[in-house]
Amino acid sequence: MRYSALSIFLNGLFGNRNWAAHWRQPEPKPHYDVIIVGGGGHGLATAYYLSKTFGIRNIAVLEKGYLGSGNVGRNTTIIRSNYLLPGNNPFYEFSMKLWEGLEQDFNFNAMVSQRGVLNLFHSDAQRDAYTRRGNAMRLHGVDADLLDRAAVRSMLPFFDYDNARFPIQGGLLQRRGGTVRHDAVAWGYARGADAHGVDIIQNCEVTGIRREGGKAVGVETTRGFIGCGKLALAAAGNSSRVAQMADLKLPMESHVLQAFVSEGLKPFIDGVVTFGAGHFYVSQSDKGGLVFGGDIDGYNSYAQRGNLATVEHVTEAGKAMIPALSRIRVLRSWGGIMDMSMDGSPIIDRVHLDNLYLNSGWCYGGFKATPASGYCFAHLIARDEPHETARAFRLDRFRRGYVIDEKGQGAQPNLH
Amino acid sequence: MKGAVLPRPAADAGADAWHDYVYLRDNPRGAYEEYWHHTSGCRRWLVVSRDTATHEVYACQDAADAKAVRA
Q1: Domains within chain B, CATH numbers bracketed
Q2: 8 Å CB contact of A254 and B53
Q3: What would the mean pLDDT of A152-172 be, rounded to a whole number?
Q4: FRET pair for A353, CA 20 to 30 Å: which of A133, A269, A293, B28?
């Protein structure tokens, strides 16, 4: 069923009893042309673009839990393309362009809201770094505006501009950045993929990869063996575990990242704002809650929950930026497992088996990349060559010395 | 927190061994050994044995002692 104002009106007339399910609950078939392991944002987007744009119809997405139970439902919903390095910037800008047309494309309201992403700076050195990044963005055709202190103050008057240690001196603004309703992204892609014939199989955990003569021929799952022509891994924080089933060791560690939401408030913060002197980012949801987060906890974890030390650290950074935060109450916090790569950048590549493809290493920036990640991964799977914006995301870049280290931290995943 | 406790290859061990040491990780779900720096206390480097799925800490010893144990 195609959604439109008319369909909402007509269904409303009949008490909303006639809406069909968004997607089927199919039994797994014995064989698929492509199996995608991981029914998160990236796996579903991959299935959507494979079926819609690249014309492959016999596809299954295997999800060990339920759709949206992983990071696509656990992030802070921010989209942006304010990257510095040439390997990253065109890819994230491609993603931003896909976001801009996404709702019309998959006929689902994902509440894409380009309300602006502002990175605050607090020192001369930071201003120089942000100026450089803004110029790099503009050279790549991405919008960027450097705001001085007065301009930031007129936008956000209640910040602590005269903080003794971290006075706010200005900010780098990407007006096209913003937020998207994260669950709706998973639902929209799932519905779109299902409409193009993709089987989305939930509660189906992959437990092994069966190989014959240098190829993956299928996967063992909790619902039996399923054969495949091509196998695509998009398992986010569990990438290392899935790759290990094919004897592949990844340049990756899994870390927990926490996020938080406050009680509902009246309109307070219009866009997304990040604190430059500590790691803190905040936006306000349409329901009124402040959605915020900070650094990963810093130790390897598969637990999907974090520790109080990081809760304290994040809220302290928030209070340093916005003193009024000391009065609000946090409603919920939760954790997601990040596939932290060794240089902070992702991997979209073919790996050591002929028909095995890997999509991983999104660190804690995977949500904004969802559309382009799906598109570029689908391109690679369908055509066996990388999409032009994802050529740098090779697995062998670590061996060859072509790392894409946006933050300049080296091979230390908990610092990216 | 510094990362996994891995045996450091010899300086002339070759590119493959060093690539493995610097970049590749087993990244297990479950038992795991890693280096922690006790920054707000004794400032010693420690080897912490921990479960990455439950966050349970099994054991902890000074990295200088642990080295002899593993070698």
Answers
A1: 15-70 (3.30.2270.10)
A2: no
A3: 95
A4: B28
A12-27 pLDDT, tens digit each: 999 999 899 999 999 9
The answer to whether A361 touches A236, Cβ cutoff 8 Å, is no
Look-up: residue for tokens 């189906």? A204
Predicted pLDDT at B40: 87
- Give me the interface pTM, i.e. the ipTM: 0.92
Among the listed residues A373, A366, A416, A370, the one whose alpha carbon sits nearest the alpha carbon of residue A393? A373
A167: left (phi over 0), alpha (psi -120 to 50) or beta: beta
Task: Find the closest chain B residue to A298 by CA distance.
Answer: B1
Does position B70 have pLDDT exceeding 60, yes or no? no
Q: Residue B71 has what pLDDT?
A: 42
Report the gap between the CA of B56 and the closest CA in chain A (Å).
11
Q: Which residue of B has its CA nearest to A399?
A: B19
- Could you read off the pLDDT of B4-18 as tens digits, one per residue? 999 899 999 999 999
Q: Which residue among A300, A307, A414 sits closest to B32, beta carbon to beta carbon?
A: A300
| Rounded mean pLDDT, A192-205 | 97
The alpha carbon of residue B53 is apart from the nearest alpha carbon of chain A, in Å, by 5
